Amino acid sequence: MSCHNAAFATLILPDAHGVRRLPYLRSAERVLGAGAQIPVRLGFDTATGANHMLLVQTEEQGEFGPAVRLSIHDPDGLPVSGAQAEAVLQDIVLDALRYSDCDIIEWCATGRLIERDEFLSLCGIDPEVFAEESDLDEPTELHDLRSHLVKDHAASAMPSAAVRGIPILTALSKPDPEQSRLGATGWLMTGLLSLVSLPTAAALSLMGLVRGMEFRLATQVLSVTALFVALGNTEAINRFVMAALH
């Protein structure tokens, strides 16, 4: 099952003790089953509702440490993104944070890390009150939990984000304009680099697709590559190397 282009959240844990699938599947079961006439089907690593499916993947040694990755798909297993998928994902993460030791969340983009309390605050939830409510033994329905936690009383009367189809974390869902411009300029630099050295440009493009294009890196690679190509064309590379060694 492909996870590319799926709305995802990686819950980074302090240790591998909390790397388990079932608790997160139960959170998905509560969220996806809220108000639904069709029961949620639980699999080994999936929870499938009427309109969405959650895939749970565990990593005991992830890039940032032990982690649990949650991604949204349609009932057929195809990746789903967009505002509604992120709203469903957000509700599942909020439910999961009631028992999870997660202290950092990677939200819908590689490297976009948010601290636990900051995530709760962005959802309009008081982290201290959330911690107190999370100590309750019996699980609480998500919309009931929010009615106790949301700072704004007017917002507490609103249905969950999944029901409204509007993600609370709109600011996190949109890329920063300045970063977008720098990224576009970085890709332009990569295009210019292909005129100088196609293999180097291909390697930089692959890195940009995986981790995001960085303007500074693209500029540095273009400058260094152009320098060595110029030296090679003028047969001055040997003199340059000897001067550098001495």
Describe the structure.
By secondary structure, this protein is of the alpha+beta class. It folds into two domains: 166 residues, no CATH class; 69 residues, no CATH class. It has twelve helices and seven strands. It has a seven-stranded antiparallel beta sheet with strand order 2-3-4-5-1-6-7. Strand 2 and strand 3 form a beta hairpin. Helix 1 crosses helix 2 and helix 9 runs parallel beside helix 11. It is elongated and about 75 Å long. It starts with 7 loop residues before the first strand and ends with a helix. About 15% of the residues have low confidence. Keywords: Membrane, Transmembrane, Transmembrane helix.
Structural class: alpha+beta
Main beta sheet: strand number and arrangement?
A: 7 strands, antiparallel
By oligomeric state, this entry counts as single chain
State the end-to-end CA separation: 56 Å
Order of helices and strands: EHEEEEHEEHHHHHHHHHH
- What Rg is obtained from the alpha carbons, in whole angstroms? 23 Å
> Unreliable runs, pLDDT <50, ≥5 residues?
137-143, 145-174
Helix fraction? 40-55%
Mean pLDDT: 76
Number of helices: 12
Strand order of the largest sheet: 2-3-4-5-1-6-7
User: How many E-type strands?
Assistant: 7
Shape: elongated
**Domains (count):** 2
Strand content: 5-15%
Keywords: Membrane, Transmembrane, Transmembrane helix
Transmembrane segments: 187-210
